[in-house]
Amino acid sequence: MTAAQDAASKFVSSLPKGSRVGLVSYGDKTLEEAPRSAGCGDVSLKVPVGSDIGAVTRQVKTLRPVGWTPIGKALQTAAAQAKGQPLNVVLITDGEDSCAPPDPCQTAATLAADNAGLSISAIGLNASSDQLSCIASKGKGYFVTASNSAQLARRLEALGDPDAASRTLSPSGVQSIRPGQLVDEIRKSHPGFPKVDSGTQVRVVWMNCTWTFSAKGVLTSIALEGSGSASTIDGLRVGDAAAALNVLGAPVSTSTNGGVETRLYPADVRLGLGWKVQIKDGRIITIVLCTCLTGSCPPSVDQIRKIQDDPTMNPTKITCIDDGNWVVVESNFEGDHTGGWLLLQRTGGGWTKVKRVTHAGDCYELPEDAPYGELEKPLGGFCNFRASAVGVKTAPSTMDGAGPIVLGMTRETLEGPSVNLSMEDECGGHAAPNVVNGFVPGLDGYHLRFMDGKLTAMAVDALGARTTSGATVGMSVKDLLSLYQGTLTVDTEHGGYSYTAGGRTLEFTSLGDDGFETNTVLAIRVHYSNSPWAVC
Q1: Are 345 and 351 in contact (CB under 8 A)?
Q2: Whose C-alpha in 170, 201, 314, 403 is 20 to 30 A from the C-alpha of 493?
Q3: Distances from the Cα of 524 to the Cαs of 67, 424, 445, 469, in angstroms?
């Protein structure tokens, strides 16, 4: 975030005097743990479009990424600043929208159609997705990724003119044509693209680049032409000193042959795109965007067969999740005798098998760092994580609850077939007639409070239990306050710190059993604001 703030501040400060600029923020006031109703309304017009560049840089430096991602509403707020005048909106985000509706891609399309002079571009900070690409495409702008502050600063500057940016070579290719696409697909959207014959490898020159196609008509690389002033979106040119490559970050591999050094840099990991750059005598001699990044997601069928050591596998579906760090492969194994799923995890530039799941009992043997929430969909209901204690243990605590345990649920729901957990009374009749305090066997450290048959509060003192933002039971109070940076209120009554939004409260208690304050977070509590946690 600090790198992003520095890059954005430098870009805004470099604008010509009299430039009109504004700032819209989202997710900087309401915690990620907050209820959806509160988090998805967290959009602010920090600085209206005008000539006060200093106000923008000051506000940029105060932003903190703590909350939800209501991209659709943020785009609407930004576009409203057009007021009938041309406006270039640049979305900077580290992930996809988490609040639809409104759908951000459809929102971008509607806004661009209703405002003739409006363009919406997007920069993904270490994030690449079809959604972000769609926002820029429908918004008549351009999408590009950025993985460090130098890239962000240069790509922000380039997106000051989205049309010109689209004609330069970037991780999104040229004019949104990127390696991996079929020539027929390219010519359908760009009729002026040269014809390519199939059956043999073909190279064509177009838009200051050399385009290489496989015998099957797949674009495998785009090379920057060495003549003229053609450059990448970062300003790199053939002939530049090798030191200029620092903007690409650290190479993932290097090799030298015949006095020529070849470096491979990541361009778009999700799509398996890399920058292949050759250097001789300290100067860049070739710059190529290609489908050459090892360990790209998804891995090929051949790679999967080798990992499983089963040449008879015939995967029917391969799904990348968790930013391309995990893969779920649906397939038959051992000559169609056994069906199931294969879970792979990225390790360096390759993949490692974590587990072969062939029956529901395997689901609960997956490692704790597996992205359980994202595994539910690709496993097709075969593994109902939310219906078991594992769904609670692996889920963070939010102001809604934890995993399948959510405020407002009835005890019957908790113990029914849809959740399938069973609670035991902790109070043994010592609570009020309409109150039941209890716990779930197998969930040590999770305490529930039901009033009039509905869950109103939950307290978690299991060591290591966490919130969405990363606070944990057992962390120091100092680290807690640093993590939430001034958003917590001192709660002297309960010995800790609290945050309230949407009629719910998140508490971090540091009060020990003896009633004395400690320097450690001893429990996380969530409850309706008018119905706090209470012991028997």
Answers
A1: yes
A2: 403
A3: 18, 20, 10, 13
